[in-house]
Amino acid sequence: MRRALVGAVLAACPLTALAQTPVDGTGTPAPEIEAPRPSRWGVSVNVGAHAARGDLSSLLDSPISGEMNLFRTHGPWRFGLGVSFGSFGMRGTYDNGLEWGFQQTYLSATRMLRAEGRLRPYLQVRGGLARLHPRSHLFDQSPLPEGYVLGGSSTRPANGWSFGVVPGVEWNLSRSVAIDLSASFTGFDVGEYDLSPVGLPPAGSGSTWGGRFGLRWHPDNGYPSGPRERVADDGPRDAWGVSRNYGWAAAQVMAVNWVAGASNEYVRNGNFTQTSPRSWWRNLQEGFTYDDNDFRTNQFIHSYNGNVYYNSARSNGLGFWTSAGYAAFGASMWEVAGETHPMSYNDLISTTVGGITMGEMMYRLSSEILDNRDTGKSRFFRELGAFFVDPIRGLNRLISGRSTASDENPTDPMDWRPPHGSTLLGVGVRIIGQDSLATDTSTYANLFLDHAYGSPWDNTRRKPFDYAEMNLQLTPGEKQPISILRIRGDVWEKPLGDQANPKHVFALNLFYDYMINNTVEFGGQSLAPTLYSRFRLSDKVDVTSRVSTLLLSLGAVNSDYANIAQVANRERLREYDYGPGAGVDAWAHLLVNRRPLVSASYRWQWINVANGSLYSQGQSGEGSNANHYIQYWLVRGFLPIRGRLGLGADYFAFKRKSRYSAPGFQSIDQHNPRLRVYFALNSAR
Amino acid sequence: MTRSWRRPLVALCALALSPMASCSSPAGPTTGPCEELTFGGQSRIPADTFVVQSITLPQPGRLDVTLDWMLTTNIVSLTLAQAPCSVEQFQADKCNVLLNLFPPPKPLVGSTYWLNGGKYDLLLGNFSPVEETASTNVVFRTTGCQIDAEE
Question: Which of residues 116-145 of B touch A (CB under 8 A)?
Answer without folding.
Answer: 116-118, 127-130, 143-144
